[in-house]
């Protein structure tokens, strides 16, 4: 049996970052940056005001107070966006709005609340500290600084950082296109009438959605039947890029037909493929796995058909590989250490992946409460369903918001244990 880590490494090794293309900022969210984005200028580009108020010489206001206010002539009015740099002599001030460049002579801003708000002259009731409310040039970044590195999965703040340095177009990796093929004679389309023994195909929907959530495009095919020759022809066409509904694809995911049954169609179809191996992996669920490349080089992930097994296999083996195809530096889900408020037995010799739900988030303590390192707040989790890790529990899988990892040498999880949880949302 392969260890979980060995199979994860083999799956990850199938994906090299895809070629790049250029996109505008509107299309950048969720893409992976393929260039370093630097700022040509210092940010902010010039010293500017953090407050609506008055730009002053701080020395003019030493000792100013409500009892001893100081009056200055107002010699300019500076809205945000102005290019003016008026001379502010001693004894004078400029009215200034938030974001407007601070005139060269001034060295502090007095917020309007501490004045009479005058426009000819202004009476000031406080002594500002030197530099008060002045945002210095280069406080955010110096000219030439790296703002967003290559390999970053772009979120809203990254897009905004690129916009703020004037980078309107970005070089990103191409979005992977992934074929999802579900197999099994017993499967029918959702909503179709069911004869005894039949069930709706849910895995192709599960996996296509998971592919899309992972930042790739999915082409959902199936369900296809248990004839190995038919499936082989389909996979060959996908690999050659000639399957009409799909065109060229960067990876293929199949579900079902990989264990030791008499009709295990994926295994039968790919048995003579030199670069595809069917191996048991020491993980529960998700033990039977097929993995490799077809003759034209397309990576294929042959996942077990049990719905929870398919989902767990996608998370453990496929998602990181798709992230790598996208060029991401960080390919893993975020994890958190959680306290277990539950107890269950686990199979010896296999890492168990248990769908869990958070029953008490760590931030129940309150976002406005200081973290006490002594109590070390952690989320609390239970099994998503008392049925636990049963790999057929397709409806209850939807209750899970995390996958807890029970190490290979553990045979029972007890209340109060700490487990690493892959966070699904
Ligand atoms: N004798 C043994 N039997 C099994 C073993 C074993 O080691 N020895 N392993 C078990 C494990 S573990 C798993 S996991 C499954 C994997 O089997 P397959 O990948 O061959 O999956 P199927 O037999 O095709 O299907 C299993 C199960 O899942 C349902 N299914 C399949 N596809 C879908 C779909 N698209 N949507 C919804 N449900 C689906 C299918 O109807 C079966 O109930 O093998 C065990 N057996
Ligand atoms: O490994 Mo199977 O995936 O236990 O259900």
TrEMBL record:
<dbReference type="GO" id="GO:0005829">
    <property type="term" value="C:cytosol"/>
</dbReference>
<comment type="function">
    <text>Catalyzes the insertion of molybdate into adenylated molybdopterin with the concomitant release of AMP.</text>
</comment>
<feature type="domain" description="MoaB/Mog">
    <location>
        <begin position="179"/>
        <end position="324"/>
    </location>
</feature>
<dbReference type="InterPro" id="IPR038987">
    <property type="entry name" value="MoeA-like"/>
</dbReference>
<dbReference type="Pfam" id="PF00994">
    <property type="entry name" value="MoCF_biosynth"/>
</dbReference>
<dbReference type="Pfam" id="PF03454">
    <property type="entry name" value="MoeA_C"/>
</dbReference>
<dbReference type="InterPro" id="IPR005111">
    <property type="entry name" value="MoeA_C_domain_IV"/>
</dbReference>
<dbReference type="GO" id="GO:0006777">
    <property type="term" value="P:Mo-molybdopterin cofactor biosynthetic process"/>
</dbReference>
<keyword id="KW-0501">Molybdenum cofactor biosynthesis</keyword>
<dbReference type="GO" id="GO:0046872">
    <property type="term" value="F:metal ion binding"/>
</dbReference>
<dbReference type="InterPro" id="IPR001453">
    <property type="entry name" value="MoaB/Mog_dom"/>
</dbReference>
<protein>
    <recommendedName>
        <fullName>Molybdopterin molybdenumtransferase</fullName>
        <ecNumber>2.10.1.1</ecNumber>
    </recommendedName>
</protein>
<keyword id="KW-0460">Magnesium</keyword>
<keyword id="KW-0808">Transferase</keyword>
<dbReference type="InterPro" id="IPR036688">
    <property type="entry name" value="MoeA_C_domain_IV_sf"/>
</dbReference>
<comment type="pathway">
    <text>Cofactor biosynthesis; molybdopterin biosynthesis.</text>
</comment>
<comment type="similarity">
    <text>Belongs to the MoeA family.</text>
</comment>
<dbReference type="Pfam" id="PF03453">
    <property type="entry name" value="MoeA_N"/>
</dbReference>
<dbReference type="InterPro" id="IPR036135">
    <property type="entry name" value="MoeA_linker/N_sf"/>
</dbReference>
<keyword id="KW-0479">Metal-binding</keyword>
<dbReference type="GO" id="GO:0061599">
    <property type="term" value="F:molybdopterin molybdotransferase activity"/>
</dbReference>
<dbReference type="InterPro" id="IPR005110">
    <property type="entry name" value="MoeA_linker/N"/>
</dbReference>
<keyword id="KW-0500">Molybdenum</keyword>
<dbReference type="InterPro" id="IPR036425">
    <property type="entry name" value="MoaB/Mog-like_dom_sf"/>
</dbReference>
């Amino acid at each position: 049996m392969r260890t979980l880590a060995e199979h994860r490494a083999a799956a990850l090794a199938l994906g090299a970052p895809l070629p790049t293309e250029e996109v505008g900022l509107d299309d950048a969210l969720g893409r992976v940056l393929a260039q370093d984005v630097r700022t040509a200028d210092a940010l902010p580009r010039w010293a500017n005001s953090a407050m609506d108020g008055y730009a002053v010489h701080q020395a003019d206001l030493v000792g100013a107070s409500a009892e001893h206010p100081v009056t200055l002539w107002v010699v300019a009015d500076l809205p945000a966006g102005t290019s003016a740099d008026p001379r502010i002599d001693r004894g004078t001030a400029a009215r200034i709005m938030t974001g407007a460049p601070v005139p060269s002579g001034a060295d502090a801003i007095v917020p309007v609340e501490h004045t009479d708000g005058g426009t000819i002259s202004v009476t000031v009731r406080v002594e500002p500290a030197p530099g008060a409310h002045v945002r210095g040039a280069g406080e955010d970044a110096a000219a030439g600084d790296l703002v967003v590195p290559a390999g970053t999965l772009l979120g809203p703040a990254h897009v905004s950082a690129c916009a703020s340095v004037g980078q309107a177009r970005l070089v990103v990796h191409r979005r992977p296109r992934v074929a999802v093929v579900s197999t099994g004679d017993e499967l029918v389309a959702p909503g179709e009438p069911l004869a005894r023994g039949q069930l709706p195909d849910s895995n192709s929907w599960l996996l296509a959605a998971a592919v899309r959530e992972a930042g790739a495009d999915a082409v959902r095919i199936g369900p296809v039947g248990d004839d190995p020759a038919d499936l082989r022809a389909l996979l060959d066409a996908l690999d050659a890029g000639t399957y009409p509904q799909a065109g060229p694809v960067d990876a293929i995911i199949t579900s079902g037909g990989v264990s030791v049954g008499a009709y295990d169609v994926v295994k039968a179809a790919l048995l003579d493929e030199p670069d595809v191996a069917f191996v048991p992996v020491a993980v529960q669920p998700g033990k039977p796995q097929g993995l490799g490349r077809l003759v034209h080089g397309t990576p294929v992930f042959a996942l077990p058909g049990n719905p929870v097994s398919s989902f767990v296999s996608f998370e453990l083996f496929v998602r990181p590989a798709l992230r790598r195809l996208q060029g991401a530096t960080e390919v893993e889900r975020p994890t958190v250490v959680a306290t277990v408020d539950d107890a269950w037995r686990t199979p010896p010799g296999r890492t168990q992946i248990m769908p869990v739900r958070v029953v008490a988030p760590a931030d129940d303590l309150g976002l406005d409460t200081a973290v006490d390192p002594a109590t070390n707040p952690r989320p609390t989790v239970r099994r998503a369903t008392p049925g636990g890790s049963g790999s057929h529990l397709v409806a209850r899988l939807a209750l899970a918001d995390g996958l807890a990892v029970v190490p290979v040498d553990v045979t029972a999880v007890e209340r109060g244990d700490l487990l690493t949880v892959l966070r699904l949302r």
